[in-house]
Amino acid sequence: MIPSSGHNPQPDDSSRHQETPGAELAIVIPAYKPDFLREALRSLAAQTDHRFHIYIGDDASPYEIKSIVDEFSSLLPISYHRFPSNLGAHDLVAQWERCINLTKEEKWLWLFSDDDILSPECVSDFYAAVRANPEGELFHFNVRIIDSRGKTISNPPLYPHRMKAGEYLEYKLRGKVISFVVEFIFSRNLYKRVGGFQNFDLAWGADFMTWLKMAANNRQGIITVPGNSRVGWRRSEVNISPDKTRPILLRKLNALIENAAFIKKELKEKPELYSPLKYSFRWIRFPIGEIWRNRSRLRIYDITGLLSRYIRRMMR
Question: What is the pTM of this model?
Answer without folding.
Answer: 0.89
